[in-house]
Amino acid sequence: MKHPPLAPDHVDAPHREALLGDLALESGETIHDYRQSFVTHGTLNADRSNTILICAALTATHHRLDFLIGPGKALDPARWFVVATDPIGNGLSTSPSNSVPQPGMRFPRFVLRDMVAAQHRLLTDHLGLDRVHAIVGASMGGMQALQWGVDHPAFMNRIVAMTPMARTAPWAALVTQTARACLTADPAWTGDGFVGVPERGWKAYSGLMNALLMRTPEAVDGLADPHAWFAQRAAQQQANGFDAHDYLYQSWAYEAHDVGTTPGSGGTADALRAIVARTLVLAPPVDLFNPASAARAVADGIAAATFVEIPSSQGHLAASSTRAEDAAFLDGTIAAFLDVKG
Prior knowledge:
By secondary structure, this protein is α/β, with parallel strands linked by helices. It has nine helices and eight strands. Helix 2 (140-151) links the parallel strand 5 and strand 6 (156-162).
């Protein structure tokens, strides 16, 4: 199993695995020998009421929200038992890149609800929990958090969803389709898998995702040398070692997502109305990946939801530690929300 290099704001913890055996998927297919990767921070309290589940974003790991974890922060391990998970297909949990019985393009397609199902088994079967205080995530992590609220409405008291979509917007679907086109344009793509690392493909992907979609024009206005910055980001992308097969599968799940296709939900609006947990939705004014209007629509559709605009020009990366002011705003806002009684 691969792990990207630790970043300065990462909080290291022993990596753990729940061996869940066969994971039945919504499609009727099965992931064999499924391993759910996760880490924990803090200690479960006596009445088992202080768990917070973190769901990771597209291509991200359990470190995605580490900037919120630490003494005095929103997810303070002295108070909370934080369970940070790796989603299916991120290279740490079972993925096309590390599956022995179903490697590469032999891996079955999965959806975000399958990620939630695996996390539910982790919490209930492996950790013996029947309820958590909150489920927190950004981007695809926020989308998983909302799906948790639809699938298991009584399982959590709170939901924190940053830059989420209840149903993947056509714009976001085109973004992931273009990102896949960058990778599969590389000579390493055979039409049925990659025979090596698609280095040129990852460079094109990095230009699309890291330079153009994750930020806004205002966010990069201060760059002294855009070309050097681009080269540095492309090198960092390669160093992270994310597998191209894994991106194909996770991005397919990302763009297919709609809480309204949950069996028995009755559509997107009805699915959002089924969420009863108090919900905090956060998004910046402009997001060139997950449209900010989609986040506002989420908040409008949930009875117990509050929308808070992140005062940032960073775009999609406003929900991260890229800018210290944004991280501080998120930390304070989320800490206050988790403390609200009732």
